[in-house]
Design goal:
The chain has one domain. About 25% of the residues lie in helices and about 30% in strands. The chain contains four helices and eleven strands. The strands form four sheets. The protein has a five-stranded mixed β-sheet with strand order 1-8-9-10-11, with helices on one face. The protein has a two-stranded antiparallel sheet with strand order 2-5. It is globular, with a radius of gyration of 17 Å.
């Protein structure tokens, strides 16, 4: 399925912060997933939604793994525990998410992680604004119809792993065949 052209609100420049680029990309991908979920619901096979951009800055900055991870986990923030007696950090800082704008996740009724938009099996994010073009795949952690990523062996695929006992979300990546063959 191909998404219709949609503008990213605001104009990206190479000087924008990584957070603002990630937020714009996460929002744009989330909006496409919301709009495509019903359309993908009645299919008899896996639905992979392709989203591409010819916007040079978005293509070169936004489609790298740390930013693409936000599409799977939602908007992230840096957090830490503060000792209220001393006003200092009590332990290391850590990354947290409210799962806001995650492509395939949402808070469930208990505010734990729930699945969303299961009619979409995966996404292909394609940066076409620079040479060489790049494409990464994202898989739904609990799709109605799973997509076999071996059908696209030259594309790296990310998938969110929910570690229920630890209350953690992690993104694991499968390397493309070309990278595995060259040792890249």
């Amino acid at each position: 399925m191909f998404a219709r052209p949609r503008a990213i609100d605001g104009d990206l420049s190479p000087c924008d912060s990584i957070d603002s680029v990630a937020a714009l990309m996460t929002e744009a991908v989330f909006s496409e997933c919301v709009s495509k979920a019903a359309q993908c619901g009645d299919l008899d096979g896996p639905a992979v939604v392709a989203i591409g951009t010819f916007h040079t800055t978005a293509a070169t900055i936004a489609f790298n793994r740390p930013l693409v991870d936000c599409v799977l986990t939602g908007k992230t923030a840096l957090a830490g525990n503060i000792d209220i007696r001393t006003g200092t950090m009590a332990g290391p800082s850590y990354q947290t998410t409210a799962i806001a704008k995650a492509a395939f996740l949402k808070p469930d009724k208990t505010q734990a992680v729930g699945y969303a938009r299961s009619s979409i099996s995966g996404l292909l994010l394609c940066g076409l604004g620079s040479l060489p073009g790049q494409c990464v795949g994202l898989l739904h952690p609990n799709p109605e119809r799973p997509f076999d990523k071996s059908m696209l062996p030259d594309i790296a695929f990310g998938e969110v792993e929910i570690r229920w006992t630890f209350g953690e979300l992690r993104v694991k990546w499968t390397e493309p065949r070309t990278a595995a063959a060259t040792g890249a």
